[in-house]
Amino acid sequence: MARYIPRALETTLAQAASEFPAVVLTGPRQSGKTTLLKHWAGKEYRYVSLELPDVRAAAVEDPRSFLAQYAPPVMFDEVQWAPELLPYVKERIDEHRDEPGQFLLTGSQNLLLAQQITESLAGRAAVLRLLPMSRREAEPQRLQAPLAWEADEDTGPGRDMSPAELWREFLRGSYPELVANPKRDVPLWHSSYVQTYLERDVRNLRRVGDLSQFQSFLRALAARSGQLLNASDLARDLGVATNTVRAWLSVLEATHQITVVRPYFANIGKRLVKSPKVYFTDTGFLCHLTGLRDPEHAASGPLAGAIMETAVLAEIRKTLANRGADPQVYFWRTAAGVEVDFLVQAANRLVPVEVKKTATPRPAMARPIQALQKDLGDMAGHGYVVHTGAGRLPLGQGVTAAGLSAL
Predict the structure, then answer these.
(1) CATH code at position 148
(2) Which of 51, 87, 180, 239 has the fewest Cβ atoms within 10 Å of its own Cβ atom?
(3) How confident is the model at residue 196 (pLDDT cuts 50, 70, 90)?
(4) Considering only CA atoms, which of 390, 398, 392, 397 is closest in space to residue 159?
(5) What is the DSSP letter of 335?
(6) 140 and 125 in one domain?
(7) Mean pLDDT rounded to a whole number for the chain
(8) Whole-angstrom Cα distance, residue 330 to residue 96?
């Protein structure tokens, strides 16, 4: 049985539970929400899964009696199965408003939860997001067991990963079960994940009738990862309506499977109408959907840049989410074609991040960031070129090269 791997969100979770009557923990399926809460609060909180049909029926049919039976402190898992319970949770909280940490709630469907929380728990609940494991969280586990699928390979404790090891990690992904169990069959795990995701989250959230067509959409979207998204072109290739593609995109975003990155404009309205880019939350899921199974093919193929960008974006979002922040990430592109992969909102500045799949960064790679810094002036902070190598080194005025391991 795999050991529990400490999560960086624990500190933020403890702080939120000490200040708010309820804490809502969202995130993609299998990101470790239940495991985290059971480990952190299992001795003090009663655990109730609302995914079980009989428990769900009791919660929906007589919510006041249900809450009387499961009085706080209590942990309700997969609360999106019984959103009707939330107004009565609000009623219970209002009766004991000064008591923090009464309810811990989890859910893997963000939009549905957000709507219910806005209506029922506004000002009463802290909403946190648990994503798959960050590199910092996974590092202690990786040093105890080989990361590679080949069991006789050893990364060696305490040293930076080689590019080959890094690409094996990308193919594996960062879901806790795969990090904790190095010998798991990775393609089989991801295949099972897709089927579970399709059958449960997708069908329940949007009542998608043709799951095989939705699966084709997943693969087509994965092949376009990191590119400007044209919903009309994607719809035409799949033979479906553009509105259908947009609805399916909202499903993926609601269930934390993708991140939509919009171009940065000082005028917020323009950010909403210009073409965005779409990235998958996990590199392993992306590689599985595009049929990549070999690290060398992944590193040298046409999707190598998108996979590397996905990995960097994931680390940025995990770092911010683990602090309880809502990650605000954009990309930057000028009419002349100068582009910076990511702009991260940090305090009152925008941190530019350029991603390169090389292990040997060069000063020329800093030029797009320096052009952005010149255009944005004091709004732009110090920039970073993130690459597959190790360590940090200056790459020019206001720009540092950093290996992914140092990110």
Answers:
(1) 1.10.10.10
(2) 239
(3) confident
(4) 390
(5) T
(6) no
(7) 88
(8) 41
Which of these ranges, 81-95, 204-218, 378-392, has the smallest mean pLDDT? 204-218
Of 318, 346, 365, the position where a domain reaches its end is 318
The answer to whether 311 and 281 are in contact (CB under 8 A) is no
Please give the structure tokens belonging to residue 282.
Answer: 């996990």
- What contacts 185, CB < 8 A, 6 or more positions away? none
What's the CATH number where 106 sits? 3.40.50.300
Q: Strands 399-403 and 383-387, how do they pair?
A: parallel
The distance from CA 230 to its chain's CA centroid, rounded to whole angstroms, is 22
1 lies in some domain: no
Helix (H, G, I), strand (E, B) or coil at 263: strand
Q: In what order do the strands lie in the sheet with 74-77?
A: 46-49, 74-77, 103-107, 22-26, 125-129
Report d(CA 145, CA 152) in Å as an integer.
Answer: 10
Question: Does residue 73 have a cis peptide bond before it, meaning omega lies within 30 degrees of 0?
Answer: yes
Q: List the structure tokens of 20.
A: 């708010």
Residues 297 and 334 in one domain: no
Residue with tokens 């996979």: 307
Domain that holds residue 203: 135-318
Q: Are residues 313 and 332 in the same domain?
A: no
SS3 content of the chain, % helix, strand, coil (to 5): 50, 15, 35
Q: Is residue 262 part of a domain?
A: yes
Digit-coded pLDDT (tens) for 279-329: 999 999 999 999 999 999 999 999 999 999 999 999 999 999 999 998 899
Residues 283 and 139 placed together within one structural domain of the fold: yes
State the burial class of residue 304 (Cβ atoms within 10 Å of its Cβ: 0-12, 13-18, 19+): middle
* Pair of tokens at residue 385: 């070129």
Could you tell me if 248 and 208 are in contact, meaning their C-beta atoms sit under 8 angstroms apart? yes
* Side chain identity at residue 103, one-letter code: F
- For the chain, how many structural domains are there in total? 3
pTM score, two decimals? 0.90
Instruction: Tell me, rounded to whole angstroms, the distance of Cα 155 from its chain centroid.
Output: 26
* CA neighbor of 287 nearest in space, from 76, 295, 73, 133: 295
C-beta of residue 73 within 8 angstroms of C-beta of residue 22: no
Question: How many of the other CB atoms lie within 10 Å of CB of 226?
Answer: 22
Final residue before a domain boundary, out of 258, 284, 318: 318
